[in-house]
Amino acid sequence: MRHDEKPPELRPSHSETSVELTDPRSLRALAHPLRLELMAQLRSHDSLTATQAGVLVGESPGTCSFHLRQLAKWGLVEEAGGGRGRERPWRATAAVTTWSPAQEAEGAGAQQVLTRSVAAWHLARLAAWVDRRPTEPVAWQQAASMVDVALPMTAEELGALNADIRRVLEAWNTKVLERGFARGVRLVQWVHWTHPLPNLEDPRDS
Questions:
Q1: Domains assigned to the chain
Q2: Percentage helix, strand, coil, to 5, in the chain?
Q3: E strands of 93-204, at which residues?
Q4: Which sign, positive or negative, has the C-alpha torsion 18, 178, 165, 142?
Q5: Which listed site, 6, 45, 172, 202, has its alpha carbon 20 to 30 Å from 95?
Q6: How far apart are CA 188 and CA 190, in angstroms?
Q7: Are strands 18-20 and 90-92 parallel, antiparallel or unpaired?
């Protein structure tokens, strides 16, 4: 980015649209840490050129341009109009990417690869925060949290719990997007994982 160039505007997407990946090739195409990071940056900005994206993710404009074109092949990003070559802006086509459990072996394998990549990407971001935390303002250090709870639940109860959490997040999402960016506001990563532990026998049955 040139020193006289205006930084890209940081603004999360207001779109609630989602794109579902069904082709195993599209799943494997997204299962790349740099492409996942590019998707995150594009969803946090109105649009980015390959040069701007390169500054944000620490890669060359040429590398970002290549990966943006690969994402575009599967409808995940698109040209936003204007500019030429590496200076043309790109934008995300949807706010959310989804994929449903596949039955056939090829699709299931591709989903496993993407899911592992997404988990590793989130863990890398968390590790970076842990390393950076001592240098952050005390207020942000205290506001951030890591919570680990193991609960005895049925599958139906777990589904209900996740639905409750989604409703809370949706309400907060509406609230903060209506307010927009102001002094003291930063993007916050909220990652929600729930999964059953290995199916062990109830100790009371022994």
A1: 18-179 (1.10.10.10)
A2: 50, 5, 40
A3: 96-98
A4: positive
A5: 6
A6: 6
A7: unpaired
